[in-house]
Amino acid sequence: MKDAFLEEAIKEAKKGLDEGGIPIGSVLIYKGKILGKGHNKRVQEGSVVLHGEMDALENAGRQPASVYKESVLYTTLSPCPMCTGAILLYGIPKVVIGEHKTFMGAEEHLRANGVEVVVANDAECISMMRAFIKKRPGLWNEDIGV
């Protein structure tokens, strides 16, 4: 059975895809409850920074540092250097990643800074990203700065 919070991140990724954007979703969990969720909105909002993780943090609202230090971030795809920086800045101690086969983000940087990194390599996350990358390679390359 799939983790319920990873399922929520996948739902967010599908929302992004349905909106014409990039299918990456994320949820921020604090004490077993969703504090914020989001998805990549670079296309939808014309944003340069609204990756799924950044949107989930934004939607969680401003929190005391103590909340972040007890939170877990779920994301459907390995976090890029920008999102990794936000994770480290706020001291989030654990990140659960849906998959890293289609894109390997800055996981080693997270680990090197004491973050627990769990990679699910979830089949649904992998197939969703592979299909998207095949269908929209230009948009994907733009998103990862290629």
The spatial strand order of the largest sheet comes to 2-1-3-4-5
Which regions have little confidence, pLDDT < 50, spanning 5+ residues? none
By secondary-structure content and strand pairing, the structural class works out as: alpha/beta
Mean pLDDT: 95
Can you count the helices? 8
Number of strands: 5
Radius of gyration: 14 Å
Our measurement of the CA-to-CA distance between the termini, rounded to an integer number of angstroms, reads 36 Å
Beta-strand content bin: 15-25%
Detailed description of the structure:
The protein has helices at 4-18, 42-45, 52-60, 65-68, 81-89, 107-112, 123-135, 137-143; strands spanning 25-30, 33-39, 71-75, 94-97, 116-119. Strands 2-1-3-4-5 form a five-stranded mixed beta sheet. By secondary structure, it is α/β, with parallel strands linked by helices. The protein has eight helices and five strands. The chain is globular.
